[in-house]
Amino acid sequence: MNRFISYYRVSTKKQKESGLGLQAQKDTVMNYVNHKNGILLKEFREVESGKKNDRPMLTQAMEQCRLYGATLLIAKLDRLSRDAVFLLQLQRGDVPFTACDMPDANVMTIGIMALLAQQEREMISRRTKEGLEPFWKFTDERFGVA
Hints:
By secondary structure, this protein is α/β, with parallel strands linked by helices. Helix content is 58%, strand content 16%.
């Protein structure tokens, strides 16, 4: 029987509180587990930016995968990370992982998707900064900051 440990990640506390992002990930993972006639041994959830690599829950999930000989299961690759180097290092590591949105991905596919996830992270950051720019300009002018 296929054994799995799932890892779910959302970026903000608001996303965690709404539960929508987590529930969608969980539904995707459970559909995959059922399709593979597998068993989900444990679930790990984390609220953290995709650009941060220090993730205690991911570390615990990977430790459990090693302990049980299980595959780390994620709904989408960008839920694991939006850092290409980090993803590629995980891929070369000792814990197999599967992204439910592309379960048959090979080394090349993971590499390409990792680069795209990182590019998306950088675009999100830029759009956020550009969106806040008028606010900061208004605040600086209001308080006499040059």
